[in-house]
Specification:
5-stranded mixed barrel; single chain; 441 residues; binds 5'-deoxyadenosine; 3 domains; pyruvate-formate lyase- activating enzyme; alpha/beta; 21 strands; 14 helices; binds iron/sulfur cluster; OB fold (Dihydrolipoamide Acetyltransferase, E2P)
């Protein structure tokens, strides 16, 4: 067996892609390991969302260069691939700056990895593949080799929204939805491998649209797979929160009461400058409609503070929106420039200390809301889907319908099953409780 080390940065889409690349390389005799030392192939599956993403990749490559040299001294060869959105954005630049890299493969070209490996092994040169044939990629992906209790399934990739701060439309290309039949086949394969929860992934997942199927219809069809107990989806855009998807939250019992619906800002002026294509009131109304069908739904969002031109009043409007909505959790970031995006050259960039101060205020408010949401579950009995053994001996970890992690003293045989747990207390990032009874076999 050859050793494959995949390092994943960034989002769930990347985690999914890493698993797919490993599946794809398994027939070539590669098995995943946990360390790069001695690996025959190392893939850095990179993310371009965070600041200085490319720089971090180059410094990681510096470290890997030494390991590669060591492997060569032992008479072996370590193939080094850069995948993901930095690969897409930087392309040939990577090979120019880091000749140690054997191949650069963009997110739409993973299916070509085996061929690239063969080519590189033969010629010893560099291989570069950063086109956008997304659906072709899905066609040639392997069925999943293994699955956790909760499994990701990509249904849609890319984005046409062009928010002015975001690189995704440039790195992942335009919106493409996979055919429903392919998705359902993969969902059944995942179920056969032990998945009990499926998380449907897409940069704009609720814009899913293929052969007249909407995301709501897809969720209903997946709900028909008996051993799948839970369905989630992420990430959604407020503009694509359609009536049938909202209705599904009231009608499809397997669709979990959890929605990640990023709003980014509570100011119409900032939303406009971000090209979000919706106003604050639209978002508030969408949330109201969702809460009508599912009053207990856990809402989460992403926020950017310090977007160019954001005034104190704009920021205050964001705080007010957060107070009004009440989030279960949320992610918040300081605006940071992405080369090539319109916002990066906007005038009125916000000074770093102002961004930091605003982020601090927002995060404190969001933390208060998260604790309040978690505390509201104390004393309740909730169905928990157990995913894995926890770090503390005798404990296993699962999630509530609201996606909160729960730690329980219980037999590992419960992993992969849903059981009723009485929630007793909360620590910083987890709930703790006691097992009541098993709910399903
Ligand atoms: N600066 C800060 N945050 C960003 N995000 C995306 N691009 C940027 C940027 N340039 C955040 C958004 C998005 C999340 C995945 O990352 O909030 O929803
Ligand atoms: Fe980026 Fe999301 Fe905006 Fe698309 S909708 S451009 S992925 S932030």
């Amino acid at each position: 067996m050859k050793k494959l080390f995949v390092k994943t940065y960034g989002c769930q889409m990347n985690a999914y892609d890493s698993a797919k690349m490993a599946d794809l390389l398994a027939p070539l005799g590669y098995a995943r390991t946990d360390t790069p030392e001695g690996a025959d192939m190392v893939i850095l599956n990179t993310c371009h969302i965070r600041e200085r993403a490319a720089e971090k990749v180059y410094s990681e490559l510096g470290r890997l260069k030494a390991l590669k040299a060591e492997k060569a001294r032992d008479g072996g060869r370590m193939l080094l691939a850069v995948a993901g959105c930095v690969a897409q954005a930087e392309g040939e630049e990577i090979v120019a700056r880091a000749p140690v890299v054997d191949m650069v493969v963009g997110p739409q070209s993973y299916h070509r990895l085996p061929e690239m490996i063969a080519r590189t092994a033969r010629a010893g040169g560099h291989a570069l593949e950063t086109d956008f044939p997304a659906l072709e990629k899905f066609d040639s992906l392997m069925p999943p080799q293994a699955s956790g209790v909760s499994a990701f399934l990509t249904v849609q990739e890319g984005c046409d929204k062009f928010c002015t701060f975001c690189v995704v439309p440039y790195t992942r290309g335009t919106e493409q939805s996979r055919p429903p039949q392919d998705i359902l086949r993969e969902a059944r394969q995942l179920a056969d491998k032990g998945a009990r929860e499926i998380v449907l992934l897409g940069q704009n997942v609720n814009a899913y649209n293929a052969q007249g199927w909407s995301l709501a219809k897809l969720c209903d069809a997946i709900a028909d797979i008996e051993s799948i107990e839970r369905i989630r989806y992420t990430t959604s855009h407020p503009r694509d929160m359609s009536e049938d998807l909202i209705a599904a939250h009231g009608a499809n019992p397997k669709l979990m009461p959890y929605l990640h619906l990023p709003v980014q800002s509570g100011s119409d002026a900032v939303l406009e400058a971000m090209n979000r294509q919706h106003r604050c009131d639209d978002y508030r109304r969408t949330i109201e409609r969702i809460r009508e069908v599912r009053p207990d739904i856990a809402l989460t969002s992403d926020f950017i503070v310090g977007f160019p031109g954001e005034s104190d009043a704009d920021f205050e409007a964001t705080l007010q929106l957060v107070r009004d909505i009440g989030y279960a959790t949320a992610f918040s970031f300081k605006y940071s420039k992405r080369p090539g995006t319109p916002a990066s050259t906007m005038r009125k960039q916000i000074p770093e200390d102002v961004k930091a101060a605003r982020l601090d205020v927002l995060q404190k408010l969001l933390a208060t809301q998260q604790y309040a949401f978690d505390d509201s579950k104390i004393g309740q009995v909730l169905p928990v889907l157990f995913e894995k053994v926890a770090r503390d001996p005798g404990q296993i970890m699962g999630r509530t319908p609201f996606s909160q992690p729960v730690h329980v003293q219980a037999d590992a045989a419960l992993i992969g099953r849903v059981a009723e747990v009485k929630i007793a207390r909360r620590t910083a990032n987890s709930l703790h409780g006691t097992l009541l009874q098993e709910q399903s076999a």
